[in-house]
Amino acid sequence: MTYQSAQALRTALETRLLARSAETGVSLDRLRRRVMFERVIARFQTAEPGQWVLKGGMALEVRLHDNARLTKDVDLGLRDAVDSASDLHERLVEILTIDLDHDYFVLTVGAPERLRDDSGGYPTWRAKVGARLADKPFGRVQLDVSPRAHELHATDRLAIPNSLAFAGVPAVEVEAVDIHRHAAEKFHGMLRDFGERENSRVRDLVDLVILLEHGLVVPERTATAVRTVWLERDSTEPPDELPPLPESWPDRYRRLAASHDMDFPPYSSAVAHVTQLWLHMFPSS
Questions:
Q1: Do 109 and 143 contact (CB within 8 A), yes or no?
Q2: Distance between CA 111 and CA 113 in Å, rounded?
Q3: Of 26, 205, 219, 276, which one has the greatest count of Cβ atoms within 10 A?
Q4: DSSP state for residue 49 in the 8-state scheme
Q5: CA-angle at 108, arms to 70 and 69, nearest 5°
Q6: What three-state secondary structure class fits 61?
Q7: Angstrom distance (rounded) from CA 32 to CA 105
Q8: Are 92 and 78 in contact (CB under 8 A)?
Q9: Non-local CB neighbours of 196 within 8 Å, separated by 6+ positions
Q10: 3-state SS of the chain: helix, strand, coil percent to 5?
Q11: DSSP-H helix ranges across 48-107
């Protein structure tokens, strides 16, 4: 049905989210954030189809729903260059403020901040996106934009959940990074050398284990993607063996596992699973 006011839609949506949370045990915060993600992505796909590609933890959540690690970021690859923070901000404002499908959501976006360049010298831009519904705050997400057309050749089309289907809002699809490319980027993030600063990306280990547990990676295709990522970002081949991980990671892993309502394997098992995949991809001669 179509709702005649933003308040009527919000009331109906909140009722459904509360029922869904009680039924599944998924936190209300996660369900609300998922709704906001859907509305953000719908605007990107409508305003600029073919330009934006979903990456990161949210791409896993689209594939695996409640079986993915909780993430509060929306990572998007962009097939265009970004000349300046002001140009990107203007573009994001234009995209996110369109009135879409009579969903009553009002989105705002702050000025993007340029983050540290990756090992290949390519920047990522971060902006805060807020949502209001019926003149009241609904949620916030962090948007990371990575202008890297050369990394976005292999993609999949995925249907995203549609929390507003009951209100007659149409479903949308999102272009997401290929799963093997995704796994390769997780490996690179997990093994990246940050110089004097310790690598803290234990979440990449968690995501790789989740991919393995759900049978989403084919070793041969992942090996090809790993070689491509290492060549793009480090101009070298990946290591023959998986290097030792930082000494702080067992504790970081346990804390991350404790903050999620999921059954993570013990740290030693997680490392063993990922090491076995690496050995399968790059067997010693």
A1: yes
A2: 7
A3: 205
A4: T
A5: 5
A6: helix
A7: 13
A8: no
A9: none
A10: 45, 15, 35
A11: 56-64, 85-96
Q: What is the DSSP string of 22-33?
A: HHH---HHHHHH
What are the tens digits of pLDDT across the range 117-131? 877 788 999 999 999
Both tokens of 248, joined, read: 């702080």
Helix axes 249-258, 202-213, angle to 10 degrees: 60
Cα distance between residue 82 and residue 94, in whole Å: 15
Structure tokens at 179: 């799963």
- For residue range 148-178, list pLDDT tens digits in order: 999 999 999 999 989 999 999 999 999 999 9
Beta bridge partners of 108: 130
CA-CA distance, 60 to 39, in Å (whole number)? 18
Residue with tokens 């999921």: 262
Q: Which amino acid is at 74?
A: V
Question: Distance (Å, rounded) from C-alpha 237 to C-alpha 255?
Answer: 33
Indicate the SS3 state at residue 69.
coil
pTM for the model: 0.89
Q: Give the count of beta carbons closer than 10 Å to the beta carbon of residue 258.
A: 9
